[in-house]
């Protein structure tokens, strides 16, 4: 787990400051590992930082996602979930019944024919892989 100072250095290296709002968002993820909606993050941050509004949290989550400090994933219901980057390369299993999300270290990209992508003129810079189905409780 990265320290706040490490996140600050990473932000500075990308031309951004570690604002009070960003600091509290990162602290919330450090204290509550896993996947959270913007509303869940808002509820956790507003306990620490009085007067903050949802749009500030949402804008900062989107920025931190763009900067690859926080990872954003989409659940089939259209809700976005966020998690702190840095927990190692992984993908997700998502239950369509209860919404439970589990991390797995399976990566189909490792078997992808990268040469084929090059042949068609495409340079991959990132990837996400999510498998949807039903957990043992919902089957």
Write up what this structure looks like.
The strands form two sheets. A three-stranded mixed β-sheet has the order 4-3-5, with no helix packed on it. Strands 1-2 form a two-stranded antiparallel sheet. The protein is built from five helices and five strands, in the order H-H-H-H-E-E-E-E-H-E. With 139 residues, it is α+β, with helices and mostly antiparallel strands. The chain has helices spanning 4-13, 20-31, 38-46, 54-66, 114-119, and strands at residues 70-74, 80-84, 91-95, 101-104, 130-133. Helix 3 (38-46) packs across helix 4 (54-66). A hairpin with a 5-residue loop joins strand 1 and strand 2. The chain folds into two domains: 4-84, Winged helix-like DNA-binding domain superfamily/Winged helix DNA-binding domain (Arc Repressor Mutant, subunit A, Orthogonal Bundle), CATH 1.10.10; 91-133, Dna Ligase, domain 1, CATH 3.30.1490.
Q: Could you name the CATH class of the largest domain?
A: Mainly Alpha
In the CATH hierarchy, the architecture of the largest domain is Orthogonal Bundle
Question: Helix share of residues?
Answer: 25-40%
Radius of gyration: 17 Å
List how many beta strands DSSP finds: 5
Q: Could you state the order of secondary-structure elements as H and E? A: HHHHEEEEHE
Which runs of at least 5 residues are low in confidence (pLDDT < 50)? none
Helix segment tally: 5
């Amino acid at each position: 787990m990265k320290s706040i100072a490490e996140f600050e250095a990473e932000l500075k290296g990308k031309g951004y400051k570690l604002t009070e709002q960003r600091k509290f968002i990162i602290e919330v993820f450090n204290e509550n590992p896993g996947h959270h909606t913007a509303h869940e993050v808002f509820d956790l941050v507003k306990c620490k930082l009085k007067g903050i509004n949802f749009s500030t949290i949402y804008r900062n989550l989107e920025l931190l996602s763009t900067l690859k400090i926080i990872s954003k994933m989409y659940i089939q219901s259209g809700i976005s979930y966020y998690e702190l980057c840095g927990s190692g390369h992984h993908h997700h299993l998502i239950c369509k019944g209860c919404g439970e999300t589990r991390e797995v270290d399976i990566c189909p990209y490792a078997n992808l024919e990268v040469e084929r992508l090059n042949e068609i003129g495409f340079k991959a810079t990132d990837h996400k892989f999510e498998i949807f189905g039903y957990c043992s409780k919902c089957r």
